[in-house]
Structure formats: structure tokens, C-alpha cells
Amino acid sequence: MAAIIKEEWEIDLMRRAGRIVAAALRTLEERVRPGVSTAELDAVFERSVREAGACPTFKGYRGFPASICASINEEVVHGIPSPDRLLKEGDILSVDCGATYKGYVGDMAVTLPVGRVDERARRLIGTARGALEAAIRVVGPGVRLSQVSATIQEYVESRGFSVVKKFVGHGVGRSMHEEPQIPNYVLQPLESFDLVLQPGLCLAIEPMVNEGTDEVETLPNRWTVVTRDRKWSAHFEHTVAVTRDGREVLTQAGGGPALSA
């Protein structure tokens, strides 16, 4: 399937979806502290999204049972919220989430410290966030997709971490997963997906960064993905639209192209 170029009215709807998911995630962040369950955070997020007139994209997607993916420490992605999973001081929590507004998706992820975390956790989180921000700065018309992938890989590996290769970013729009796929590393040799970015293309860029090996495995629940060596992992994601003169980050509470430091 070819990458889908969005009309301006479609990007307007995605912008609205992006603002909803960003605001709901910010509300969730305010509740992250030791002793809180991931099920409680899931409920907070879902309520915020629905009150804004949207639907949580993940709930029911391919059978997923919750509105957010809540992945703790060595869990990379697809952690299932549970009333029995209580956050502890020093944990890190990766929250992957989406909102669908009038048929269009905003997709976003962050990794959050729980209380005080140690220096290794701060470096891991900072590297994953920095890789996303560096990749977004590269996005623009005429840029090859491989340049985005290379930026992520070089940023992460230069800091002594590894990028997950089994899971990738993707196009986004009416569906949460559209073409093109966006690896967080450069395939050798470059495959045919190495397209040239055009205005109207919307991308969910999402570096997943591991403290140790890039290898991962899925737990018996068939959802939760963990690092094979059980070292920790961090995950950040934004939905980004390619514009005529650069890019716009759609998943920000206030909209616009700016990124937090």
C-alpha cells in the first residue's frame, strides 16, 4: 500500500485528535506517583478523551483490552493496565496512547519517571526523548525517510543505548497504522520504502530505546513486549505532519511545531 497524502481538512481533524490525546496524557501525567495502579491511569486517560468528544484509539484495537499501553521498566510496549500493577518509587512508565476524532487518529507516547529515579533511568529517558526531537527536526519535504531513521539510530547509539528493531514507527491518519513503516535504524541495503517525504504525509515517529540489547520478546499474555535481557526501555512518540516548509507536531496540547526541551 502506498503512503496516503492528507488534505488540509484531514490534517485539521488530526490536529484536533492530537490536541485531545496530548491533553489527556497531560492529565494522566499529573496522577503518576508511587502507589497508583496502571488501571487507574487508564481510566483517567479514557475519561479525558471521551469528555473531549473523541474515542480512545487503542481500546479494542486487535483485541487490546485498554485505552493505554502502560509499560513499566523492562516492558518495551503493549503493557496491559491492571489494578494489580502499582507504580513504585524509582520505576519508569512508558505510556503509549491514541485518540480518534471524527475518524482521524492522534498517536503519542512518553516515558515518565515515578518519583525519584536514578541517573541511569534519567539518561535512558533523556536519550529516547532526544532521539525523537532530533528526528522531528529532520522532517521536511524532499527529505528521505532513511534520514529520519539514521538520525534516531545515530543519536541513540552514540549515547551507548540500542534501538528496538522489531517494532517501528508508521504512517497514521484514518487508521492508526498506515504506510510507510518508519524503522528506528537504517536497513542495509535500503529498501524500496525509502520514500521522499511530501507535504500532507503524516508520520507517527516513535523511537524505542533499550538500556542493553535491542532484542525483545513477548510475554505469555501475547501483548506485553519486554527486553530479552530485562534491562530497561524507554519510548517516545509524536504524530507529525510534513508541511510545505517543514513539519508540524500534531500531538501537542497547544498545537504548533514547537517541541519541549
Task: Describe the structure in your own words.
The protein is α+β, with helices and mostly antiparallel strands. It has helices at 8-29, 38-51, 119-138, 145-157; strands at 55-56, 68-72, 75-77, 92-101, 104-113, 162-163, 169-171, 178-182, 202-205, 208-210, 216-218, 225-227, 233-235, 238-243, 246-249. The longest helix has 22 residues, at 8-29. It is globular.
Structural class: alpha+beta
Helix share bin? 25-40%
CATH topology: Creatine Amidinohydrolase
CATH class: Alpha Beta
Biggest β-sheet: count, sense, barrel?
5 strands, antiparallel
Query: What's the β-strand tally?
Result: 15
Secondary-structure element order, N to C: HHEEEEEHHEEEEEEEEEE
Identify the strand order in the major beta sheet: 8-7-9-14-15
Give the distance, in angstroms, between the N- and C-terminal Cα atoms. 36 Å
The shape, in one word, is: globular
- CATH homologous superfamily annotation: Creatinase/methionine aminopeptidase superfamily
Overall residue-averaged pLDDT value = 94
Q: Treating each run of at least 4 consecutive H or I residues as one helix, how many helices?
A: 4
